Amino acid sequence: MTVIDVHTHVFPRLGRNEGRMLADEAEPWLRVDGAGTGMMMCGDEEYRPVGEALWDPARRLADMDAAGVDVQAVSSTPLMFGYAAEPSRAADWCDLVNDRVLAFCAEAPGRLLPLCQVPLQDPALACEVASRAAAAGHRGVHIGNHVGDRNLDDEGITGFLAHCARIGLPVLAHPWDMLGGDRMRGHMLPWLSGMPAETQLSILGLMLSGAFERIPASLRLCFCHGGGSFAFLLGRAENAWHRRDIVRADSPRPPSEYVDRFHVDSAVFDPRALRLLIDVMGVERVMLGTDYPFPLGEEEPGATIRACPGLDDAERARLLGGNALDFFAPAEVPAATMPAT
């Protein structure tokens, strides 16, 4: 069976001068310290210690071989999004990052699938960057789940998602810049509590705003980290939609009728949680995702899937790779909507 990890990150070797293409201060760049270690940087500030698998394709491929992973979808680290920058400056930065991600993945074509990033703060410009990236060989686009106070149901962002549907570009949505930061000091609480809340907010926003009614059903959209807290709280949202007109004011259908509009990865780390996720989403809507190579990721790729109760071999094969093969399959797109070459 083919094993495909849809949620992995890269930070190409971008120096400080290159980071200043995006920002004059707090610019993202990678400091490589030697002996396989490095540091993600924001200007002068150290952001997070990292290992060479984040930037070295040879090390990554060795890890994949050791873990039995055939293919990874490779996306930039959210620190690199650049959504606060001036749009044209962010577009140039995204083009640079996208070129470096392509070069990284070119070390093992077919095993490393490049996902681009875009200046989502300007949806029209984001469409242009996404089209260029798709024409250059990117297999999907990696976006944050919001831009400032604009959620995914923002009119401009839904327009971008519709563009991705039209050009057949899959979308991986990742939580970042978590809400409630002032109350989540220490113990990595923004990652433990804020990320699931961000993803739940994004999914419900698309459902209850009616955004899914405006976005083509052909859009291939995946939320990281198992969809956050969505699966566990779907019943709460469903109950509210049926009982309160203010909840259903903009949504013609209850939340449960939109679960076929998106996928989630399997990064929930507990077979019981994964069982619930599959029951809510359907076995065809969950894909292996590990958050490699960060330390909060699944250390043994696919272990939670293999330990999940009630799955037969065919269902495990779908979760470990079959669903991702369909998700990232090249789309047949009408010539009029294909990116310019």
Automatic annotation (TrEMBL):
InterPro entries for this protein: ACMSD (IPR032465), Amidohydro-rel (IPR006680), Metal_Hydrolase (IPR032466)
Listed GO MF terms: aminocarboxymuconate-semialdehyde decarboxylase activity; hydrolase activity; metal ion binding
Keyword Transmembrane part of the UniProt annotation: no
Catalytic class of the enzyme: lyase
GO cellular component terms given for this protein: cytosol
Any one Pfam family match given in the protein's UniProt record, by short name: Amidohydro_2
Pathway: Secondary metabolite metabolism; quinolate metabolism
GO biological process: secondary metabolic process
UniProt keyword terms in alphabetical order: Decarboxylase, Lyase, Metal-binding, Zinc
EC number: 4.1.1.45
Span of domain Amidohydrolase-related: 4-328
Entry's family note: Belongs to the metallo-dependent hydrolases superfamily. ACMSD family.
Quaternary structure, from the entry: Monomer.
Name of the protein in question: 2-amino-3-carboxymuconate-6-semialdehyde decarboxylase
Native species: Actinomadura livida
Taxonomic placement: Bacteria, Bacillati, Actinomycetota, Actinomycetes, Streptosporangiales
